[in-house]
Amino acid sequence: MRVYDSPTLVHDLIRFLRGGTVMLKHGRSGRPHFRYFWVTISQNSRKLVWTEPESKITAERSSIDLDDVSFIQLGCFSKVFKRHPVASTDPSFYRSFTLGLKSGGRTVDIVAGSLPDFEAWIVGLSNLVRVDPVWGGKLDITKEAHFEQLNCFEASLCEMNYIYPSQYILLKKRVKRIAMRTLGVLEQCGNDATKAYKILGGIHPPAVNEKGAVYLTKGELRFIGLNDMDILRITKVWILFQQMNLVYDENFVPATTFGVTERH
């Protein structure tokens, strides 16, 4: 839980990217293939490099300059990905991303092997490129279960961030249960947070503010959501929950905060 709220998160993730990861690369021809990806950073350049994983020291390398990246698109929406379509019901759909180069150039289309790897690469690359990642399309939630339970803000959140209504409703119920449990234990302990902490556990003393919102970090929400949602989508949910007075965290920092989704 703590890793997602760490003040050194970006530094740690970029160090991870420099170490490299094997991921699946979709190309303009042939079948998708595994490649070893890593980031190089020097005084004058920052590059994403990849090569064959079996012989990464001697094999021919390909690379792009990260300064040439225009956008980071989440999901399987690019022309390259559409050569081998992946359904939104496939877990790999939510570990897929596209780096689009400026001036309508080529794309680099990648599928991470795990959700933590996906999170590391997206947050790390977003901070190197200085853009906020966005989904390449909208999820049609109108025929999904529990759609009728969403208000307009919740529906927009789910639609724009590929969150199924059932996922969102379940997470919301879990947060409400945590808030009720926290409030109950605090009252039982005479609002002594230290005593309540011993009963509830967690990564910080429990608290509920004057509006009834429970003290819950985005990292805790990510943990509560298990592996249903990555930290980027969890951050968007956390912000809406805050606006609904369900959660609060005076030290909250979004996963990415650049205010732009494309650079020219």
Automatic annotation (TrEMBL):
Domain PH: start-end pairs: 15-130
Note the SUPFAM superfamilies from the entry: PH domain-like (SSF50729)
Superkingdom of this protein's organism: Eukaryota
The name this protein goes by in its record: Putative kinesin
Native organism is Trypanosoma cruzi
